[in-house]
Write a structure and sequence with these properties.
Length: about 120
């Protein structure tokens, strides 16, 4: 399950770094990749957000952020898009309920992030 979540983060970050859109992640190419990943990753939470709207962060399935090369948040954090040489960071969150636990302990929240420099 975690492999699927981390692969989804990588694929979406790759697409968003080449086709960022404004707001970040809204390009048709990135939207198509998001749709595919939602079908592949069971438990991916609905919704997505950009920048400071991602509060609390695990409320959304996919969060887009725009950061500088030094890791600091770029003004607007992707609301107005993200341009080179900035970095797109995508966080993917999904819930998983392992059958082996037979319902004890409740669901697990899995989260992964991936970053790519905007092309």
């Amino acid at each position: 399950m975690y492999n699927g979540v981390s692969q989804a983060a990588r694929e979406i970050a790759r697409s968003a770094s080449v086709h960022p859109g404004s707001p970040l992640g809204s390009s048709p190419e990135t939207t198509a990749v998001v749709d595919v990943q939602r079908k592949l990753v069971f438990g991916l939470r609905p919704g997505s957000c950009v920048g400071s709207a991602c509060t609390p962060p695990d409320q959304f399935g996919i969060a887009f952020h725009c950061e500088g090369l030094d890791g600091t948040t770029v003004k607007g954090d992707g609301v107005g898009g993200c341009a080179a040489p900035d970095v797109v960071r995508v966080v993917v969150t999904a819930q998983y309920s392992p059958v082996a636990l037979l319902g004890f302990g409740g669901p697990l929240t899995l989260s992964s992030s991936s970053s790519n420099q905007v092309q």
